[in-house]
Design a protein that fits this description.
By secondary structure, this protein is α+β, with helices and mostly antiparallel strands. The chain is built from twelve helices and 32 strands. The strands form eight sheets. Strands 21, 25, 27, 28, 29 and 31 form a six-stranded antiparallel sheet that branches. A five-stranded mixed sheet has the order 2-1-3-7-6, sandwiched between helices. It has a five-stranded antiparallel sheet with strand order 15-14-17-18-19. Helix 11 runs antiparallel to helix 12. It is globular.
Length: 607
Amino acid sequence: MNSIPFASNFMKSSFLIALLLVVCATVDAADKPQALVKAARAILDDWHNQKPEKDQRYLHIVCWTPSDRELPKDYRPRLTRMMQHIQDFYAKEMSRHGFGERSFNLRIADDKLLDLRTVTGKFEASHYAVQSGGEIRRECLPVLKKAGIQAEDETILIFCNLATWDAERKVFRHKSPYYAGGSYLGGTAWQLDSPELDSLNLKLKKPIISDGQYGRISLGKHNSIFIGGIAHELGHALGLPHCKERPDEAVRGTALMGSGNRTYGDEVRGDGPGSFITLAHAMRLASHPQFSGSLKGFETTAKASIDGLKVTADKKAINVSGVVQGKPPVYGVVAYFDPEGGGDYNSTTAVAVPDADGQFSLSTTALPPGKLGQLRLFPLHTNGSAAAQMSQTRFSYPYRIADDGTPDLSVMQLRLDLKSIIAAIQSKDKAAANKLASHLKSEQATKIAARLTRQSPTQTPADYDGDETEIPLTNFKASEIKVGWARPTFDRVPSPTVLLESAGRIFQTGIYAHAPARHVYQVGGMWKMLTGKAGIDASHNGSVQFEIKADGKSVWKSRTTRSGKLREFRIDLDGVKEIELLTHPTKDGPGSDWSLWLEPTLSRTAK
């Protein structure tokens, strides 16, 4: 989710007391969270109070139904109760953290019920499915526009009437879109509505109903899941990613943006502590225009930098520090420590507030052993933006946790060593990249930099007349190239990350091959073996199948390969004149299929 440097445009005295409470630098969110909030609020309030631009943003609600269905019974009073219940939940959580009763805003009509729009779809219910969110949204746009609402610039919640509730048999089924996305600028959440959904029913342990997805559960639990789902998906529409509660937070229940959509309201039935909003996400919401009541800097493009970033391991902790600066000013830094597997649902958080010079520090020990992970840092800007929001990989760093819980930061350190060279490559300043490469101290970094800055090859493997018996395939040019997305690249990827990173390692040589992809090399019967590995770029979650053909015949196929897995190959090339490296999308389609051929190496016996 944000022009004047932060350090030079704020009077240190305006938040000195708050900073003293944080002892100038910040620590893990578990340590003195009230002091963190006071420091953050001091920065936020000081900025918003200077030339304030007060305004009220609203959550706009649409009730959509297919052409052959009426909207569910009593939809307006029920939805009013549910949405006000969720509004109160957000307000109480924000207040608990020390931000006051900030929440999203609802438009209420003169009859004290939600002011909402209704839309009838073009087709009958049988036409629509879970994947129909985009189509349904497009059907809603004309009605929103007629009401003066530009959907691209607002936060929209669409209730879809695609559920079936049999009140007599107590059976529920649905095929509704149920997802969301957005930022401080705006977003869309798709939900479902059904007559039995009502915040008044959260307390009910009976009757027991049959839910098509969750089996036999109480009507109260059913309401917890789906009203909690509204609260959760709304969080995404407001710009919040997933995260899990840290061990020190677990006493409060389940993080709303983790699995908290399933525990919302459990406490009213005595079924558990319920759901809560983490400090990290309260920090992010505090500046959201819906919550701040301010549009100051709303249309300003946020920019942030983190200089002198230092990440260290101390026993079983990861410590992070640096100097953050931004436009608009940065009032906080949220860190997500995301272990492999489970998407980002398993990520835990830590929070920092920068001091007057932009220095911040944070730490965590909530690191599952035996896992690869990604550290993602989000500078929070006073206008509501998180500078890294539009690029999840901008401040993203890999780590590995050993089976004994000890962090291994070697890959992260390698990325940090190459940071300036990567920046030069991104800006297409090859001279600067070469100059920087000459000053590297790490042998591995030096070798990778050499691959990143070398000239494009002109020979094919069949043309080679040298004496070497083992050569990276990327030392040669391909005779045919096709990639599914972006431009072909070798020994790098065509994204801000640049480096060939997969399964917790950074590789010196490799081929970017977004599926579907085909790379053909003429080898002229001169080589005996092709070896290497294949995997998915670390910043993507695609799934592909790799294949190698020799003179048109398939000689190796991998199993379906997903992020975090490497497939090794060893191909006999005796007498082979042409090889093809192929990557194929799997049944989930080509989205995020950033495939990599890693360390592909040709070898032969000495002359």
